[in-house]
């Protein structure tokens, strides 16, 4: 039997949570793009034949003109927008070479973990933002302890 309910198109996307000095690089989507004005993790759609990690390295080179090491996955979340269902997988990343450069975002910013939830994130990002803010805080605490131990 036919149904009026259509399955939304699945759009597989990867996002990079680039961590440096206890802050995370966040990007605000530019005018003219879908979800303009929302904050996101830099990245983009996975192309045919790519692994998620390959897609993320390519997207970061294209979008931020720098190279990252793709570390552990954070989570995979889905959200149905009016243009389709985005499945976002977010990875912790570290800079390998180059400096993130603004090309297509409205702005990019290194954000303190405690401040990340105050930004207006794209709906599919909320789970990753919550998790990442805790993970980074944990790493920061450990590195602070290490620093204190070295000073004694
Ligand atoms: N890169 C990225 N995209 C995200 C995030 N959250 C989220 O909803 N998206 C959406 C926005 C886009 O619809 C899609 C990512 O595709 P893309 O980055 O290649 O899209 P695009 O701006 O080049 O093209 P378009 O969607 O405007 O056609 O996923 C996120 O954290 N990072």
Automatic annotation (TrEMBL):
It comes from the Bacteria. SUPFAM superfamilies: Nudix. Its EC number is 3.6.1.55. It is an enzyme of class 3 (hydrolase). It holds the Pfam family NUDIX. PROSITE patterns: NUDIX. Residues 9-133 form the Nudix hydrolase domain. One of its GO terms (biological process) is DNA repair. One of its GO terms (molecular function) is 8-oxo-7,8-dihydrodeoxyguanosine triphosphate pyrophosphatase activity. It catalyses: 8-oxo-dGTP + H2O = 8-oxo-dGMP + diphosphate + H(+). Its cofactor is Mg(2+). Keywords: DNA damage, DNA repair, DNA replication, Hydrolase, Magnesium, Metal-binding, Mutator protein. Belongs to the Nudix hydrolase family. This is 8-oxo-dGTP diphosphatase. The lineage of its organism: Bacteria, Bacillati, Actinomycetota, Actinomycetes, Bifidobacteriales.
């Amino acid at each position: 039997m036919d149904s009026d309910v259509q399955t939304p198109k699945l759009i597989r996307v990867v996002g990079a949570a680039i961590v440096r000095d206890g802050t995370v690089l966040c990007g605000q989507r530019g005018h003219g793009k879908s979800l303009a004005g929302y904050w996101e993790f830099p990245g983009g759609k996975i192309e045919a034949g790519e692994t998620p990690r390959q897609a993320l390295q390519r997207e970061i080179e294209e979008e931020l003109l720098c190279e990252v090491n793709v570390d552990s996955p954070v989570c995979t979340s889905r959200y149905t927008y009016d243009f389709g269902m985005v499945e976002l997988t977010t990875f912790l990343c570290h800079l390998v070479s180059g400096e993130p450069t603004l090309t297509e975002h409205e702005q990019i910013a290194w954000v303190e973990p405690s401040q990340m939830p105050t930004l207006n994130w794209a709906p599919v990002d909320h789970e990753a933002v919550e998790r990442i803010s805790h993970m980074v805080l944990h790493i920061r605490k450990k590195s602070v302890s290490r620093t204190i131990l070295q000073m004694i």
